[in-house]
Amino acid sequence: MTDSGRLLKISGFVTILSRSPADEEGVHDSFQQLIAEHSDNGAASSALELQQLQSDLDEESRDNEPLSGPEHEHRRRQGASDLECDGGEREMDPIQGEGWSSDTLKILSSMPSRTIGRNRGAIISQYCNKTLKLRRRRQTRPSIRDFSPSSRPSIRSYGMEGDTTDAEVSKRERLVNNLQNLPVSDRVRMLRGMPLSVAEKKEIRNLVMQKEKRILSNKKLSCCSQLKYYIIIAARKSWYSWLSFLHSLQPWHTLLKRVSGRFGTGVLSYFLFLKTLVFFNVFLFLVTGAFLVLPQAVHPPYRDMTSFSGLELLTGAGSFSHTVMYYGYYANYTLPRRSRDEGGGQNASTLTSDSQQFSYNMPLAYFFTIGMAFFITCIILVYSMSKTFGQSFRINKSNSILTMKTFSCWDFKVIKKKSVQIMSENIGTQLKELLAELTQKHTKSTFCKRFCRLMVHGVAWTICIASTTGCMAGIYYFSEFIHKDLQQNHRNLDPLMKEAKLLSLPTVVSVINLLLPALFNLVGWMETYESPSVFAYVAIGRNLMLKMSMLGVLCFHWLGRVAPEYKSIGLTCWEDFVGQELYRFLLMDFIFTLLDTLFGELLWRLFSEKVLKRKRKPVFDIARNVLDLIYGQTLAWLGVLFSPVLPVVQILKLFLVFYIKMSSVMLNCQAPRKPYRASQMTTIFITLLCIPSLLGASVCVTYTMWSITPSTSCGPFRTLDTMFKAGKHWMEILEKDNPSLSVLSKAHTYFVENPFFLFVGAGIFLIVIYFHSQVVDGQRKIISLLQDQIQNEGEDKKFLINRLQSVHKQKQDAGKRLKSQDSTC
User: What residue intervals traverse the membrane (predicted)?
Assistant: First the structure.
């Protein structure tokens, strides 16, 4: 192969590799169509162009090609071998173009990445063809054969670095005409895809809009057309205004942006998680309110009402016990018939006779409402967890995100001064986090340092586990002491003293939840983690261990002590007592959250500024505050069976906590010393909310409905052995009244009463989560391989360009040597 052929081949490789995969297909199709049309309509002119181009290249190669001979062949082979040996070491920077030949510069100038700002005519011509294709696809238009060859990219421009001014103006006019005939969505997408500057895109868009206005002003529309036009414009404006109004109704949107700008994504993830919990509780209240609270409130049973003393707000007992707030208020008969028994007790025969009427079966509604609420919540949580898992664990290298954040994250529609300030703070904080992630160095430590670090971690975890175990034992024995004291003195105790003793257990648990995380933070400071995100995740794990162990001991106290022996402590309805306990725990958790905000953040800031004379403020403890939210939400899920109105209490608590924590963060806290990007925190929070929290609450509620005997004098299940028997009784009634529905009774026996299908459903959820994690992991690997391939292709381009330059230099050097030899001869 001659040197000119090698030159053409290498230049072809460079031209192919220089295009991106997205543009290569479109360019290939357009040029294939161009060649076919040239062969049909203008074969003579096209052949003349190709012959002229080939003759120019051959003439140039003959001028530079030396005479063939053994000496030249030896020198050529020696030069090729030297080039192959030194090709990797002699790589040049492709950005620096001094000393490159004209052929290399021509090829570089034709690369798509080098045409922006220098060869606008070629770009406009290319997008002219794209708009024509899109128009033909959208509607019937004249074929491209009807247009003149000058309106399409020509082979004549192969060796040119740019088009003339007149040709560029004409192509711009044709592009404006084509864009004007496209729909608005296609026009916007086409303008966004053009590799032009923002000013040139804006100029083209203004030309298109001006032409549209001129066309509309010149046209004489009929009255019907004008009316139709105005109706469409009014409807579109109304729709956009409605969307803007809905966006403004988004709760806490501006506050969340302000927090993100000042404190970063770590603190923002806490408030986003709190917002998610609000939506879950709103959904839970809507379900229980529509199917339980509202029907029972419309048809209240006969009860002796007690006066309101105000102490009920603290204890949850008193007059609240005779309202729809607790389980014992709900009837065990079908509504709207009331019970004629003053005690509220009825047998199964009454239930059977009532069911013959078209009425509302409260026991069945209570059972299925609680079950479906937990099932739908589980589905939503699993879906949210899989979605956030795919978003947060996707491969996103910090350098690529940094580029996008730097050049294309500003929203030019924001014009208010306050909004501009919030957005600039937000972008600045995100850039700090990305730069911190890029500059983070992983130093290799020696064996002694690693061993010492493992020893410190082991001691820290030993302290945390030992303290958690000691607190569990203390809560266990303290709850046992309170239970035995109530068994012995429940008849002689004053009501105020009894309620004070009942508040002691929530108080002790809240004190432990307040003080022990401080010990965990002290131990964490001893460990000296390099990454702040790792420190946050370790603190979340330790706080989770504490909260879940406390909840486990409390569930054993309620379901293992109080429920079987409720009569020995003077109770007539143990479900109401458990509901009141959960209300007291939620209230105490809120009170101690206020105390922590006051003493842990406000007073510490004042002490640091006034006494210590330091400008440092406390850092917001994400781990402890998030686990407090998960702890409170677990209490709400546990209590929805015993107190259907408890989600309302949780909603009010979350609203107050949001504004209290938001004010405290803005006034008393500062951003972390080391900024970090918390890209996976939301996923971890949702996962913890699903698996330990909701799963644990579902197990406790299912155990209560399946195994524990309800109270015999209150509630919708007072005459049944277990709450689960409500569905079976209803199936028996249906089968007795309508023998043709016996299939439903058998289906209930095999599918609902059999625990095998419950385990199958749980297994399906776990399998779905596992497969989704595997798919995401596969996508991460594929993206990583594609990024490596893109990097390798860039290196290939550099290598080919350098080889091209080296071949051209060899040709010039050989020609000069031969000319010098001829002159000497």
Answer: 267-294, 306-329, 364-384, 454-478, 502-523, 544-563, 583-604, 681-706, 756-773
Select from 519, 594, 516 the least CA-distant residue to 549: 516
CA pair distance 587, 314, nearest whole angstrom:
7
Q: Virtual CA dihedral for 634, 640, 642, 644, nearest 10 degrees?
A: 150
| Exposure letters 201-237 (e unless 16+ CB within 10 A, then b) | eeebeebbeeeeeeeeeeeeeeeeeeeeeeeeeeeee
Residue 160 identity (one-letter amino acid): M
Q: Which residue has the tokens 């939301």?
A: 682
Tell me how far apart the alpha carbons of residues 23 and 770 are, in angstroms, rounded to a whole number: 37
d(CA 723, CA 710): 7
- Residues facing residue 619 across a β-bridge: 670
The residue type of 1 is: M
Cα distance between residue 206 and residue 220, in whole Å: 23
* Contact by Cβ (8 Å): 783, 393: no
How far apart CA 144 and CA 154 sit, in angstroms, is: 14
Q: Tell me: pLDDT of 219 over 70.
A: no
Please identify which residue in the block is written with the tokens 């850092």: 619
119 exposed, middle or buried (CB, 10 Å; 0-12, 13-18, 19+)? Answer: buried
Distance in angstroms between the alpha carbons of the first and the last residue of the chain: 30
Q: Is the peptide bond before 644 cis (omega within 30 degrees of 0)?
A: no
State which of 58-72, 388-402, 411-425 shows the largest mean pLDDT.
Answer: 411-425
- Token look-up 């292709």 returns 793
pLDDT at position 810 is 84
Q: What is the pLDDT of residues 117-143, one digit of tens each?
A: 445 566 666 667 777 666 666 554 444
Helix 695-707 vs helix 532-556: angle between axes, to the nearest 10 degrees? 10
Q: What is the pLDDT of residues 542-579, one digit of tens each?
A: 999 999 999 999 999 999 999 998 888 888 899 999 99
Going by the DSSP 8-state scheme, the letter that residue 361 receives in this structure is E
Can you tell me the distance from the alpha carbon of 698 to that of 704, in angstroms, rounded to the nearest whole number? 10
What the block records as the tokens of 516 is 């022990």
Based on the number of CB atoms within 10 Å of its own CB, is 68 exposed (0-12), middle (13-18) or buried (19 or more)?
exposed
Q: Which long-range contacts (CB under 8 A, 24 or more apart) does 482-486 make?
A: 483/557, 483/561, 483/562, 483/569, 486/569, 486/570
| pLDDT of the residue at 420 | 80
Residue 77 has pLDDT above 60, yes or no: no
Cβ-contact 311, 499 below 8 angstroms? yes
Q: What is the CA radius of gyration of the chain?
A: 38
- The whole-angstrom separation of Cα 686 and Cα 272 is 11
